[in-house]
Amino acid sequence: MMRTRPLKVALLGCGVVGSEVARIMTTHADDLAARIGAPIELAGVAVRRPSKVREGIPAELITTDATALVKRGDIDVVVEVIGGIEPARTLITTAFEHGASVVSANKALLAQDGAALHAAADENDKDLYYEAAVAGAIPLIRPLRESLAGDKVNRVLGIVNGTTNFILDKMDSTGAGYQEALDEATALGYAEADPTADVEGFDAAAKAAILAGIAFHTRVRLDDVHREGMTEVTAADFASAKEMGCTIKLLAICERSADGASVTARVHPAMIPLSHPLASVRGAYNAVFVESDAAGQLMFYGPGAGGAPTASAVLGDLVAVCRNRLNGATGPGESAYAALTVSPMGDVVTRYHISLDVADKPGVLAQVATVFAEHGVSIDTVRQQGRQDGDGEASLVVVTHRASDASLSGTVEALRKLDTVRGVASIMRVEGE
Ligand SMILES: NC(=O)C1=CN([C@@H]2O[C@H](COP(=O)(O)OP(=O)(O)OC[C@H]3O[C@@H](n4cnc5c(N)ncnc54)[C@H](O)[C@@H]3O)[C@@H](O)[C@H]2O)C=CC1
Ligand SMILES: N[C@@H](CC=O)C(=O)O
Ligand code: NA
Question: Which Gene3D superfamilies match (predicted)?
Answer without folding.
Answer: 3.30.70.260, Dihydrodipicolinate Reductase, domain 2, NAD(P)-binding Rossmann-like Domain
